[in-house]
Specification:
Blueprint (H helix, E strand, L loop, with lengths): L15 H6 L3 E2 L6 E2 L2 E4 L12 H13 L4 E3 L8 H7 L11 E6 L14 H15 L6 E4 L8 H17 L6 E3 L4 H10 L6 E5 L13 H6 L3 E5 L20 H17 L3 H10 L7 E4 L3 H13 L3 H14 L12 H10 L8
Parallel strand pairs: 3-4, 3-10, 4-5, 5-6, 6-7, 7-8, 8-9, 9-10
Antiparallel strand pairs: 1-2
């Protein structure tokens, strides 16, 4: 990792000293130079609790001015709220000072209206996102959680081609996929008639699950930029613990509770260790972390820029070899949420045909 000015640096807007300290990395396909710490937009939609739009705006501006240059959001986050909050701030910042990603396919809390991957809806969704965000284009338009589609062939025949139309119209510049099951990424990459540029993967490069490492060669072979997300494993690795809806099984939750107890006995913060772990692999250029609080942004930047204290490093080593040593790659919650979704709908098609 080498510090320096990325292409997103704007003279007179950025905090130049902060940008100089940022250990930027390269994404091979897009050619972007990105900060290891990226800004996730879920918190701006009050997904994790009540937030202040004023403080959210301050977080967005401060993060970008200090060199964080990748921002990700979705219509699903707060059902449009995240995009609207970003839309109150981003139009007042230089558009070339950040890369902006949003998603299509997942929308409303009502299970009957939650997903819609049809081409017509995809094209309308892109327009809606651009209006809410107050921008003329997205740097990446992504398929949101395609594992919930009635068929992955629908993603290949309608969703991805619709994103290509949006790209040809100048509304998006790159096409991406997201989702939890990594084998779904493999299927889409191998069957899509459309070039896939980025893959957003979450909860697969964390203290409790490092299975993303087994797939990096696949993405590299297809020249796809990997964007990591959820360093805290959707709250499993936080001091407060996971939300009640978290789909992880008892073995994962027990290991994370053991990790928290060890950290507390050493007087260290588990979330700092988890964030450092996710940011430290040079093969993973950037990790999305979401916060709507300035104090937490400062804490995240501190880990990114300064690393860990010796006691934190030794505790992290102990967690990796001890508490989580036998867990990697063996315990996930793949299929749990998808099965629950189709049970609520009362049907379950074959999602790989």
């Amino acid at each position: 990792m080498q510090p320096g000015r990325p292409a997103t640096f704007v003279e007179g807007f950025h905090d130049e000293e902060a940008v100089k300290k940022m250990p930027y990395r390269q994404l091979s396909h897009t050619g972007w130079t990105v900060a290891p710490l990226a800004l996730g937009g879920s918190a701006f939609g009050s997904v994790f609790g009540d937030t202040s739009d004023t403080e959210s705006a301050a977080v967005i501006r401060s993060a970008i001015q200090r060199g964080i240059n990748l921002v990700d959001t979705a219509p699903w986050y707060g059902h449009g709220k995240s995009e609207r909050v970003l839309g109150q701030t981003l139009p007042h910042l230089p558009r070339d000072s950040f890369y902006l990603m949003s998603k299509v396919g997942r929308y409303k809390p009502n299970v009957q209206e939650m997903f819609d991957f049809r081409a017509e809806r995809v094209l309308a969704s892109i327009d809606e996102s651009l209006e809410r965000l107050g921008v003329a284009y997205l740097d990446v338009g992504q398929v949101h959680d395609p594992e919930f589609a009635p068929s992955l062939d629908l993603i290949c025949s309608e969703t991805l081609p619709a994103l290509l139309k949006a790209k040809e119209a100048g509304k998006i510049r790159h096409i991406g996929i997201t989702g939890y099951p990594l084998d779904v990424h493999h299927y889409l990459v191998e069957h899509s008639p459309v070039r896939i540029d980025t893959a957003l993967t979450y909860c697969h490069y964390t203290l409790n699950d490092s299975t993303l490492l087994e797939h990096l060669d696949f993405y590299a072979a297809h020249d796809i930029d990997v964007i990591n997300a959820s360093a805290l494993s959707m709250g499993l690795l936080s001091t407060d613990g996971p939300p009640s809806w978290h789909p992880a099984g008892p073995a994962i939750k027990a290991a994370c509770q053991d990790a928290l107890a060890l950290c507390q006995s050493r007087g260290v913060n588990l979330s700092r260790l988890a964030l450092h772990y996710s940011l430290s692999n040079p093969r993973i250029a950037t990790t999305l972390v979401s916060t709507a609080h300035l104090a937490q942004l400062e804490a995240n930047l501190d880990v990114c820029l300064h690393g860990l204290a010796p006691v934190e490093t030794s505790t992290l080593d102990e967690l990796c070899t001890g508490v989580f040593g036998s867990l990697h790659g063996k315990e996930t919650w793949e299929g749990v949420e998808v099965d629950n979704y189709w049970k609520q709908l009362g049907q379950r098609p074959n999602v790989t045909s």
